[in-house]
Amino acid sequence: MSSPTAGRPARPPRARLTPARGTAPGPGRIRSVPCPSGPIARPSAPSAPSAPSAHPRRPRPVTGHPRRAAVAAVTAALFAAVLPAAQSAQAAPPQQPPSAAPQEDRAAAAPDLGRAEAQWIDRDTVVWDSGTTAASTRLLYAPNGGITVRNGELSGAAHALRLRPATLDEAQQKAHPHLAGRPAFTLDPRDRGRVRAALRGQVAAVQRDDAGTLLAATGVQLPGALDDLYGERAVQAELGPVFSAKGVPTLSVWAPTARTVSLELDGRTVRMERDGASGVWSVRGDRSWRGKPYRYAVTVWAPDAQKVVTNRVTDPYSTALTADSKASLVTDLADPRLAPDGWDSLEKPAPTPLRDAQIQELHIRDFSVADKTSAHPGEYLAFTDHDSDGMRHLKKLARSGTSYVHLLPAFDLGTVPEKRSDQAQPDCDLAALPADSERQQACVTEAAPRDAFNWGYDPLHYTVPEGSYASDPDGPRRTVEFRQMVQGLNRAGLRTVMDVVYNHTVASGQHDKSVLDRIVPGYYQRLLDDGSVATSTCCANTAPEHDMMGKLVVDSVVTWARDYKVDGFRFDLMGHHPKANILAVREALDALTPAKDGVDGKSVVLYGEGWDFGEIAGDARFEQATQANMAGTGIATFSDRARDAVRGGGPFDADPGVQGFGSGLFTDPNGSPANGSEAEQRARLLHYQDLVKVGLSGNLADYTFTDTSGRRVSGSEVDYNGSPAGYAAAPGDALAYADAHDNESLYDALAFKLPKDTPAADRARMQVLSMATAALSQGPALSQAGTDLLRSKSLDRNSYDSGDWFNALHWDCRDGNGFGRGLPPAADNEDKWPWAKPLLTEETLTPGCAEIEGASAAYRDLLRIRTTEPAFGLDSAGAVQSALSFPLSGTGETPGVITMALGDLVVVFNATPEVQRQRVGGLAGQDYRLHPVQERGADPVVRQSSYEAASGTFTVPARTTAVFRR
């Protein structure tokens, strides 16, 4: 596996300390809010620094099935504290992140070596706010551990490193902004030669008074010192199994703090050698090692255990695994035996620039597990079944303009049994139960800890395909079949995007599903001020700001692009990465060439969730890869602005009936008191329309238009819950969507929000109109697979662990759309059951083939228009400003209708239940007619649209998006 370093940001020169005469008062310690037994979900709504705008996702915890009710209660309490009301037009100003807040003196804590409040930030510098005024501060180290606190005093043999009070200089404060102003210490020059030895054992920081009395003692966080000492050389290393031209493997692992590392290979133990400059342990083998199982035996001080342990661990750089990730395999991804027929000569569809990408988000198991026409249900190979219903539908989408299939996580997951024989099934006749029954969800929940389903946001090995999707998880078949899947999609006219999750691991510490943290304890995970692992992502956060975690991200992505020919990457919680890390990924991909690597890395697209929350919010520790920060980089971020405006409310509203532009707010009220008075609804709807307009511009910060109050505003001046609605610098910076795997499906959201008696045909029309606001925007757009088929998950708002019953796609309209399959699982939905139960038996909410197939065909017509009309793919903010306008925007704008002029096109989004006439006087006398695709298309209702040239009036039927062309 190569180690591209050209994309790694240059290491800044090591900062110098400014000596200080005494220890200044330091900051208070930050306490973390622990996740409950199952990781809490992350909220939707504003992108204020204090809360993420992402949708909820809760990977199944490795300790077993979550106590769902308890998790839901904690989640609800958290969100009640951090989220403004869905209908609030102006939120309170965002608070400073805790780590940047003013610090106060605090009382010294009792000595506790189980915590790690001292931070060794480079080879010479320690930062520690102990709350004491001490006469002496030292680091103690013991190669084999044994330092303890008993009866308020230290015991155990240890060596000492002397520290002197100092202050952080400007460069150090810039590198560690969350530590600025805290008490700092510099290592006595006489002791600097012992730093490397100290880092390979137990390290403690201690303070005493003039009389020698112990005042404070704590463990020490080491990542900064490890990066300073080893990072520059270590990032150049090739890790994992690397094969010579003659097929001889060398195995290498970075473990700078380990006492010893040995290779356990197929039942025997092989000694490994340590490189003192990089901290990498390596061993060269022979050709007989190929295909053999192996693990590393790492003897290392483990802070969690407070002792030296020997961990037997798989390779973080594994290229193949045995079933259930029990062992790594010595596997060369360049081995011709792992290449399916035609792999080396694979012809891909022409690359689509990110600004023009139309993306289908798809879960591998969902795609085919219920498809009776697939020969490989639930497997990678289902994408090679070219005559299955699922593949035929994807081909239709590809012919209509869909360019990418975005696969939910397909790397090695931590919580799904990979062998079919180990996978549980619900022990009920689910299909025989009533549509509003509680029994389906109870049966599914009981089987969930051992079933075959999970969204997959629980990474175990980042660079090996998940085994449960392979015909045989025990060995390299998963590699071959993943490649066959990519081939199948490419041959269907679609490029492939992988959803990657480098922001957390499924476990940390000494857990048996912790890989990184058992090799270099305390390094790969992001630690809070007390030394505990941050869990703001609702799992154990990683620290891509550290050299070797950042390297792992880059190396892994390059491997997927080069060796699996993946065409794009979607970064989960990308805002938890440094911007520099994501730019390093971009640079490393750009270096891949067809001649050298077999792929054109510059054609690989990147996008991700740029939410800003948690311990790193507001650039507290580094410049984050958030929405605003990524503008202008060519790497897109999901835009929640228009999404929320179209759907209305959020997934954590107490009443799920909060309406939006696409769900009948004001124009088709559902009677919910949560929507406010008639005047409040009208005002909120008009503001939502301004948010949709910003979305249609590509979320451009500088795009100017007249808003519904009559003011001339830029996109950045339109309010989104206290944040700027527009943040993009160019088309392609923001990715539009109305529906994704998180939260209720669009159909289910509309089920809650549209009036209960809304006919199925009208529900289908509102679905297509809502999708149109994303598909017809500038920049890329994403849609959840099946949304065009009115996909339902029976009102489940968080189906990450809800099994096939609630998640499977139904390609045959005769099988329904998934609605009415019982009440959704209690943990995330029980509070909504009073609203859900009467809906699940409502006849108007059960679409037939006419509605399902009609909605899909109408959406495909819109895709054809979007991908064949150049005006929807403008390449600069200036071009958008020149071509795009909203001629009827202002104080007289029609609530529920948006009229958009775009070059020679006029698009009318009529979200109201009535025919609407939009008179654009400036276009009078010009010759417009309904776009030929719609004029000859599948939707008979849109064909009733008309244009009167004399007055410049566009007439559009109810609940319809009509595109006119001059």
TrEMBL record:
InterPro entries: GH (IPR017853), Glyco_hydro_13_N (IPR004193), Glyco_hydro_b (IPR013780), Ig-like_fold (IPR013783), Ig_E-set (IPR014756), Pullul_strch (IPR011839), Pullul_strch_C (IPR024561), Pullulanase_N2 (IPR040671). Residues 815-964 form the Alpha-1,6-glucosidases pullulanase-type C-terminal domain. Pfam families: CBM_48, Pullul_strch_C, Pullulanase_N2. Residues 239-318 form the Glycoside hydrolase family 13 N-terminal domain. Residues 116-228 form the Pullulanase N2 domain. CDD domains: AmyAc_Pullulanase_LD-like (cd11341), E_set_Pullulanase (cd02860). Residues 1-24, 38-54 have a biased composition (Low complexity). Residues 1-68, 89-111 are annotated as: Disordered. Residues 55-68 have a biased composition (Basic residues). Belongs to the glycosyl hydrolase 13 family. This is Pullulanase-type alpha-1,6-glucosidase. It comes from Streptomyces lycii. The lineage of its organism: Bacteria, Bacillati, Actinomycetota, Actinomycetes, Kitasatosporales.
